[in-house]
Design a protein that fits this description.
The protein has helices spanning 6-19, 31-46, 65-77, 86-99, 102-113, 228-240, 245-266, 272-300, 309-331, 342-348, 359-370; strands spanning 119-122, 138-142, 145-152, 163-169, 180-186, 192-197, 206-217, 221-222. By secondary structure, the chain is of the alpha+beta class. It has three domains: 6-84, Butyryl-Coa Dehydrogenase, subunit A, domain 1 (Orthogonal Bundle), CATH 1.10.540.10; 119-225, Beta Barrel (Butyryl-CoA Dehydrogenase, subunit A, domain 2), CATH 2.40.110.10; 241-370, Butyryl-CoA Dehydrogenase, subunit A, domain 3 (Up-down Bundle), CATH 1.20.140.10. The strands form two sheets. The protein has a four-stranded mixed sheet. A hairpin with a 2-residue loop joins strand 2 (138-142) and strand 3 (145-152). Helix 4 (86-99) packs across helix 6, helix 7 (245-266) runs antiparallel to helix 8 and helix 7 (245-266) runs parallel beside helix 9 (309-331). The protein is globular, with a radius of gyration of 21 Å.
Length: 375
């Protein structure tokens, strides 16, 4: 698989997508949509087009970083929906490869790829915000189980998730980063309640998750007990680094093309102020592309992104909000049309500076770990 040249890889994927048109559903708004998105992931997985960056022995293609970038680009250009199980593919799978036991990898990894198990992330808490070290959800060892009690929030797609990857406090007396462990949580466990949170868009992507003495098998511990912070750093590096940037890059390139076409057809592009705003948005999207190319080059050389993944997250969050601000300001009332997509994009991107680690946290990481500034 890895011997394919990028052009051959692209051609193979394009040919397959032409023969397998994606579903028109893009959001798991109900049970029928969820079932359709599971089936689409199953179709992709049968042809080994899920988790292409995973090693071949785990069901992937062992794709190179360049091939992964091409993969994400072609999926977006073909109009495919985001994979329903992307948390498992991008976060859980890579974490299990590094920290999981062989039994855990055998049990879960193939089910992640074909969408049999959809995973959610159970990190953030209402009392801790972006400070994961402030989490208080506790897990007390009770024989062959951990008794988990507490609350998580902002858990995307928890309503239909089969499994969750959770940070829990297993030693309340240890230093904050030393008393945390990571557990794999079956979401149908008695004592777990999921409550959807309706967002400003009207969707319920986010959820609160409550744990009331839920019994989780001790064998579901990922990594050593009380060393979950090190395990979580593997997960977070995939969340904030290169796992999403290729898809987002192409999405904004296509959105920019759409915005330019609208302003040209309406004559708005002849307005000098509008032209300046359009130019600014285009420049930022081009900077995003160039930064992603630089990231790809660094990863190809075998360099660790480390704290530099925070630069990716911070720039993307700001870019996304500024772009839709500009679009809505330019289009005015036309942006309010239900089928335009502009208003939904504007509302959705409000959360981008919070989700996946707030922009304030990212600036702290950049200042302290890259620029060497004092805490």
């Amino acid at each position: 698989m890895t011997d394919l040249l990028p052009t051959d890889f692209r051609a193979e994927l394009r040919s397959w997508l032409a023969e397998h048109p994606p579903p028109t559903v893009h959001v798991a708004a109900n049970a029928d949509d969820t079932a359709m998105l599971r089936e689409w992931q199953r179709t992709l997985a049968a042809a080994r087009w899920v988790g292409v960056h995973w090693p071949v022995e785990y069901g992937g293609r062992g794709a190179t970083l360049a091939q992964v970038a091409i993969y994400n680009e072609e999926l977006v250009r073909a109009g495919t929906p985001p994979l329903l199980g992307r948390a498992g593919i991008s976060l859980v799978g890579p974490t299990l490869m590094v920290h999981g036991t062989e039994a855990q990898r055998v049990q879960w990894m193939h089910r992640i790829l074909d969408g049999t198990d959809i995973w959610c992330q159970l990190f953030s808490e209402p009392g801790a915000g972006s400070d994961l070290l402030g989490l208080s959800t506790k897990a007390v060892r009770d024989g062959d189980t951990y008794r988990v009690s507490g609350q998580k929030v902002w858990s995307s797609y928890a309503t239909y998730a089969d499994m969750g990857i959770a940070l829990v406090r297993t030693d309340p007396h240890a230093k904050p980063h030393q008393g945390i462990s990571m557990l794999a949580i079956p979401m149908n466990t008695p004592g777990i309640e999921v409550r959807p949170l309706r967002q400003i868009t009207g969707d319920c992507e986010f959820n609160e998750v409550f744990f009331d003495n839920a019994a989780i098998p001790a064998r579901n511990l990922i990594g050593p007990v009380n060393e979950g912070w090190s395990v979580a750093n593997t997960t977070l590096a995939n969340e904030r680094g290169a796992s999403f940037i290729w898809r987002e890059q192409v999405l904004y390139e296509l959105a920019m093309q759409k915005l330019l076409a609208i302003t040209r057809s309406s004559g708005l592009a002849r307005n000098p102020v509008a032209r300046q705003k359009l130019a600014q948005s285009w420049i930022e999207i081009e900077l995003f592309r160039l930064h992603n190319a630089q990231t790809l080059e660094r990863l190809t050389r075998g360099e660790e992104l480390g704290a530099h993944s925070s630069i990716v997250k911070l720039f993307w969050a700001g870019l996304s909000q500024r772009f839709y601000d500009q679009a809505v300001n330019l289009l005015g009332l036309n942006a309010l049309l239900n089928d335009s997509g502009w208003l939904e994009g504007f509302l959705t991107t409000r959360a981008n500076s919070i989700m996946g680690g707030s922009s304030e946290i990212q600036r702290n990481i950049i200042g302290e770990r890259i620029l060497g500034l004092p805490r």
